[in-house]
Amino acid sequence: MGSKSNRSRRYSEEFKRDAVALVRSSGRTVTEVAREIGVSAEGLRNWVKQDTVDRGQGTPGELTSAEREELRRLRRQNREQAETIEVLRKAAVFFAKESDR
Q1: Among 3.10.20.30, 3.30.70.20, 1.10.10.10, 1.20.1050.10, what is the CATH number of 10-62?
Q2: pTM of the predicted model as reported, rounded to 2 decimal places
């Protein structure tokens, strides 16, 4: 595995869309376009693949960007609710002990 010496950058959705459009319209390889615009070839390849899925042309079972975002949101919500339930459980135990005194 490679080191993370160069911190991964965040690119805007507009930049990603433009990069994918350049790959699709230029007839050049992903590697050539990636080198030209200064991003990793693997990153650009992932953007192109995700765009294909988002267009409904991916393989069955692959998640669209909207579905991925919803899954992230639901997992975060689930984690927060589990934490709330744990706090309430501990509070119930505490107050049950207090009322026994």
Answers
A1: 1.10.10.10
A2: 0.68
DSSP SS3 for 55: coil
Phi-psi sector, 56: left (phi>0), alpha (psi -120 to 50), beta: left
Burial of 84 (C-beta count, 10 Å sphere; 0-12/13-18/19+): exposed
Which residues, other chains included, contact 35 with Cβ-Cβ below 8 Å and sequence gap of 6+?
41
Residue pair 26/33 in contact by the 8 Å Cβ criterion: yes
- pLDDT bin (cut points 50, 70, 90) of residue 9 is confident
